Amino acid sequence: MPIVATAGHVDHGKSTLVEALTGSDPDRWAEEKERGLTIDLGFAWTDLGGHDVGFVDVPGHERFIKNMLAGVGAVDCALLVVAADEGWMPQTEEHAAVLDLLEITRGVIALTRADLVDDDTLEIAELEIIEETEGTRLEGWPIVAVSSVTRRGLSDLSNAIVEVLDQSTAPEPSPMRMWVDRAFVIAGAGTIATGTVLDGTLAIGDDIEVLPEGRTLKVRGLQHHGGPTGSVGPGDRTAISFTGDADGIERGDLLAAPGTVAPTTRLLATLVPTRAFDEIPPRGAFHLHVG
């Protein structure tokens, strides 16, 4: 199943747009509804042009950037959301930089709240987006003006997403890998881990290794789109239950085919500053987000 992940500044209409496209509210927590602010990842799915598409809705607030990163690591199409009445904002820049650094080359830009501005303002907002994405992997992405209230442009946006997904190529066969983006306990079922399958396939009864810990568990049950399934593959939003003690699994853990991934305490990396920085400071505190 192809995955579309949102990105963009806080309160630019990402969740509202996902609900307009899918008919499902991606905000799960009472606090999110009370504050009108996405805090954690939200999920929804629908059929677009014959594609069974999953949507991952990410928070836009700067305090929740690690949650945003957890949602955009394995996507077939990014949906960058920019409000027409506010334009390119600080978290728009930050999220665009994340998409660029993760080498996400396929996406669509939704110019939301088009019902709140006149045509001249809409044109200026579109020109600003073109200027801001120049020289990045987002350059040339289609820009679609939409309104979740009047439903203007929603069919055009759906068509643009489908066109991007039609260009996707099938992944090369490889061992199973999935980053955990949620983990919780259900009475009678134990620990449940969810994520998007990056590579390979997984079936009930398979062994799976929890990394970096190195513990091996057996898959007891699988769910996809809220219903049970016998197996899952690349791109599938998946919930996994386990046979045995699965306590301690948390966001950021990697689930992989046993023996295919080795934990390490060292890494070799190429550091690429975003355009917001002329250079990476030689001293200071840094956070490394993996998976």
Structural account:
The protein is α+β, with helices and mostly antiparallel strands and 291 residues long. It has six helices and 16 strands. The strands form three sheets. The chain has a six-stranded mixed beta sheet, with helices on both faces. A hairpin with a 2-residue loop joins strand 12 and strand 13 (227-228). The longest helix has 15 residues, at 119-133. It is globular.
List key phrases describing it.
6-stranded mixed beta sheet, globular, 291 residues, single chain, alpha+beta, 16 strands, 6-stranded antiparallel beta barrel, 6 helices
Question: How would you summarize this macromolecular structure in one to three sentences?
Answer:
This protein is α+β, with helices and mostly antiparallel strands. It is built from six helices and 16 strands. The strands form three sheets. Strands 2-3-1-4-5-6 form a six-stranded mixed sheet, with helices on both faces. A six-stranded antiparallel β-barrel has the order 7-9-15-12-11-16. A two-stranded antiparallel ribbon has the order 10-14.
